[in-house]
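Lab meeting minutes (informal)
Scribe: AK
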Amino acid sequence: MSSFPKPEPSVDLKSAIFKWMDERLGLTDVIALATHKQVPQHKHSFWYYWGGISLLCFIVQLLTGVLLLVYYRPGKDAYESVRQITYDVDFGWLIRSAHSWSANIMVFAVFVHMFSVYFMKAYKKPREFGWWTGLGLLGVVMIFGFSGYLLPMDELSYFATKVGLQLPSMLPGVGVVVNNVVRGGPSVGENTVQRFFALHTVVLPLLFMPLLGLHLALVQKHGNAVPAGEAAKPASERRSVPFFPNFFAMDLAMWLIALNVITILATMFPWDLGQPANPLSSAPVGIHPEWYFMSQFQLLKGMGLVLPGMLGEVVGMGLFTLVLIFWALIPLFDSETVAGKRARIATWTGYLVVTGMLGLTIWGYAAL
C-alpha cells in the first residue's frame, strides 16, 4: 500500500507577511526595544504627552500643506490662489483651516512642552542636547508660523508681517541688512512672498526634519525625566509602564483628542480671508503680530513708553536677548545633581518668564 505525503499545514498569511518584513526590517528588534522602554508614571505624567501632540500637529501640517501646494501660486497671484482654495476648490476651506489651526496649536503645544521640560529639570545631565535641540525646534516652528502667515497676502497678513519685521530691524548693526534680505527689497511685496514661500516649504522643513530626528533619538536614548520629588523616592516606590503598548495607546488617545480639537476648530471657526493687501492704504486699526510674538512686541512697545526714542526699543531688545541666552544656557547654570541655590534661581526665573509672557501678551491685546 503506497503512502501519500501529508499535506503541509496551512500558513497563516499574516504571520508570513510579518516574517517576510521582519527578516528585512528587523521589526522584532523594534518591538522589543519599544516594549523594553519604560515610561515613568506619576502625578505629572500628563505633561509627557505634549511632545507627541506637537508631533501630530506637524504631521497634519505636512499633509494639509502638500494639498495646499497643489493650488497655491506664490508671487502676484498669491491672494487669488488662496481665494480659489477658500471659495472655489471643494473642501479647500477645510484644508486651509485645518492647516492654520494646527499651526497655532502646534506652537502652543511646543511652548507647553518646553515649559514642562524646564520645570521638571529635564535639561540636566545627560539631557543637555535634548534641551538645545528642543529650543532649536521651537525657533524653527515660530519661523514656520511667521513665514506662513504672509502667504495669503491679504490685508491682515501683509500689515502684520510689516509689524513683525520691526523686530529683526532692531538688531544692532545688521538689522537693516537682515530686513532687506528677508523682504527681497525695501518693502514687503511679491519678492517677499516668494522668499517666504521658499523658506516655508523648502528651507525650514530641511532644517526641521533632521533636528526632529535627533531630538527623538536623544529622548529614546535618555528616556523621560522625572520631577525631583519622584527621583528622591526609593526605586521600589517608583512606578512605570512599558512604552509599547501601554504608553503608546495613551499617546494615540491624546492624538485622537487633539485631532478632534483641530477638526472642530477648522469646521466651526473656518480661517478667514480678508481683503487683498494694498500697500498704499493705511494699516487697519489694531494691527499686531501673531499671538506667539505678542509678548516680545509688547515688551519693545512698553520699553519705548518708559525710555525716549530708540533707546527704549534697544533696551527692550537687549533684555529679551539676555533672557534668551540664559534660557538656552540653563543646563550649564543649573547643573547640580542635588537641588541648591542655582536650582531655586532657575525655578523662579521660569515662573518669572511664564508670568512675563502671559502678562505682556494680555497687555498687548488689551491695548489694541
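Next up, CB showed the second protein from the same session:
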Amino acid sequence: MDADYNVKDEFEVIFFRNVMIYFDKPTQEAVINKLCRNLKPGGYLFVGHSESLAGLNIPVAPVASAVFRKGA
C-alpha cells in the first residue's frame, strides 16, 4: 500500500490475479493505477476471472475476459 512500489522498470505484461478481491473499490483503483505506471504503452494486465475493473478510473481497456491493455 506504499505510495510507490519502487520499481523502475516497465513491463509488457503484468499478472495481478486473485488479489483485488481483498480490497475495496478505492483501493483497487489506486493499486491498478500504481501497477499501470510500470506497464508499457500497449502492455497487458491480466486479472483473475472473478475480478472486475468495471467502474474504476484506470488507464487500461478490456480486450478479453480478465485481460486489459494500456493505451499507447
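CB comment: The two ends are 27 Å apart (CA to CA).
No objections, moving on.
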